[in-house]
Each structure stands twice: as C-alpha cells, then as structure tokens.
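Entry for the shared binder. Reason: the reviewer on the internal report wants the predicted structure included alongside the sequence.
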Amino acid sequence: MLDFVTHRPDLPLTITGAERFGLGLWHTRLATLAVEGLLFAACVWIYVRVTRPVDRTARWSLSAFVVFLVLVYIANIFGPPPPSVAAVAWSAQAIWLLVAWGYWIDRHRISSIAGR
C-alpha cells in the first residue's frame, strides 16, 4: 500500500484487472522527503522505545547505523546517478551488509516491553 502513495498511476494492485493506481508522491521531491523522513524517524523512535541497549556497543552502533542510513539517503536523493548497471548491481548486493549490521545491533539490545 505504501507503493500506492508514491507511484504514479502505473501500479497494478489487482491480479486480473487492467486498472493502474498511484497517487504520484514521487512527482514532488519535497513531499517525498517529508513523508519518507517522517516514516524513517517514526520507525527509529519506535525501535528505540521498545528496545534498550545492553552495552555501549548497542548505543553507539545504532547511532552510527542511523547516521549512515541518513547520509546514504541524502546522497541517493541529491547525488549523481550511478555510473553503470554494474554499480547498481554491486550496491544492491551490498545492501545485505546492512541486514548483517542491523542484526548485530539487535543482538546488543533487548526488549524493554517484555516484562510488561
């Protein structure tokens, strides 16, 4: 459903229908930045509220991760396009490193709502 908000009306949301849907949020850079930024901030806030660090590694690694994601997002929005298809492919494969980083961070945090 989030794709419905961002895509132009080219998104097939039904299995058999020919209708295409989308609100076209991507047509407005400022609106895109606002919605995606608020969503990212809300998700980070929720994660920080429902977990707590068990050591200094957890605190600093989460902060570094959030800063890294924000910098990559800004570079993606305002930077030049990728120089080649190979660069896109390698960056897509490198995204798995973010999954490993997130897993490592999560191993240093525990639920703060488990005992409630």
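Summary line for the report: The longest helix spans residues 56-78.
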